Amino acid sequence: MTRWESYLVSAAKVINSYKGDLPLHHFLKQFFKQHPQMGSRDRRWISQLVYHYFRLGWWHTDMDISERLLLGTFLCEQQSNDLLEQLRPEWNQQIAAAPEEKLAISGAGSLAAEQLFPFTDELSQGINADAFAWSYLRQPHFFLRVRNNKQEQIVSALQKNGIPYELLENRTTLALPNGTKIEDILKDKSWYEIQDASSQQTGHLFKPAKGQSWWDCCAASGGKSILLRDQQPGVQLLVSDVRRSILENLQQRFAAAGVKNYDARVADLTNPAFPGTMGRVKFDGIILDAPCSGSGTWGRTPENLRFFKKEEINKFQDLQKRIATNVIPFVKPGGVLIYITCSVFRKENEEVADFISSNSHLVQEEGGVIPGYGNGADTMYAVRFRNKE
Ligand SMILES: C[S@@+](CC[C@H](N)C(=O)[O-])C[C@H]1O[C@@H](n2cnc3c(N)ncnc32)[C@H](O)[C@@H]1O
């Protein structure tokens, strides 16, 4: 058996044993731990094959696995590669063709959006189902947000290391190839944050003013809070999350980014007793970056196309409504609430936004879907409400 054929066999082994109960990258890590004879090149190829396989969603699930692995590689890769050259050279010659052309060349028949992404009837308004579904065939980019005006220094380090990059029009967002080991290239952590392009765009809704008090109530490791403080270093900041461990990550990330003077607390915002623990405090701005299906980021975790259960969407909506209900009373009259998800589902987006405005004095001012699928970024939803009390 050639090296390339053995990659197909190993990838098929992974696919047959993976049941979706933990993220695919964790599963692959475990798999490689059990097969220490595989070197880094082998691991890279097998992982890539498996990811391409899942990028095809529910299309041709009855096809022979090896055939589907090759088809996934043909449709998802844009550059000639050794595996196809050895196993399907006639496809490798056409690797740069448009996806529609590749479909015809492969003889695999037509491809409808619902076959790739089985939840098209759940999409938020304004998301183009075809363009969104087809975006799964491309691995998303890796994005940086430039801080402290270090564009020139960063670009020159990337050029020195031969890393291809695109500096977007706003001159603060950099798109890089996925898997770039940026920590090895940029030693000064204060120059940049790793943050998806759409996540960076949510910041356009913040508009903080000096001296205001803000609460990032589902802060995780603090990506939105750092963005907020970069816009307005003078805001007073409270961060909270239900997970103590993620707030420890936040503290390290803030220290590396030079973010100081903030309050942090562990808080479960679904707990009905929670509001009583906050005292009489109110905020000029609250960022509610809600726990969600993450369906706008599944280009990075395409195994979800096969393993996510539609019923989960309602559970997320329920969680989002409960958290919003507990958070709304803490917006000052005249203050703002920014509701954010990285979901493409109407139930987690517009329906929760409608729930917020129907059950409070909050009025939606601006925002909506941030469609990242056209430029290799995540798709998000972000809306800004003002308290008209
Ligand atoms: C989408 S993430 C936030 C991402 C973060 N804002 C950022 O920019 O990196 C949602 C966060 O909500 C937190 N969360 C989930 N359930 C919660 C609850 N009941 N109360 C408070 N936080 C919760 C999760 O732990 C998770 O860190």
From TrEMBL:
Where do the catalytic residues lie? C342
- Matching SUPFAM superfamilies, A to Z? S-adenosyl-L-methionine-dependent methyltransferases
**Which Pfam families does this one have?**
Methyltr_RsmB-F
Q: Which GO terms describe its biological process?
A: RNA methylation
Q: Which GO terms describe its molecular function?
A: RNA binding; RNA methyltransferase activity
> Is RNA-binding among the key words of this record?
yes
**Domain SAM-dependent MTase RsmB/NOP-type intervals:** 129-389
- Binding residues for S-adenosyl-L-methionine, per the UniProt record? D241, D268, D289
Q: Which chain positions lie within coiled-coil regions?
A: none
Which Gene3D superfamilies does the UniProt entry name for this protein?
Vaccinia Virus protein VP39 (3.40.50.150)
The protein's UniProt keywords, in alphabetical order, are:
Methyltransferase, RNA-binding, S-adenosyl-L-methionine, Transferase
Question: What CDD domains does this protein map onto?
Answer: AdoMet_MTases
What does the sequence similarity comment in the record state about its family? Belongs to the class I-like SAM-binding methyltransferase superfamily. RsmB/NOP family.
Stated name of the protein: 16S rRNA (Cytosine967-C5)-methyltransferase
Q: What lineage does the source organism belong to?
A: Bacteria, Pseudomonadati, Bacteroidota, Chitinophagia, Chitinophagales
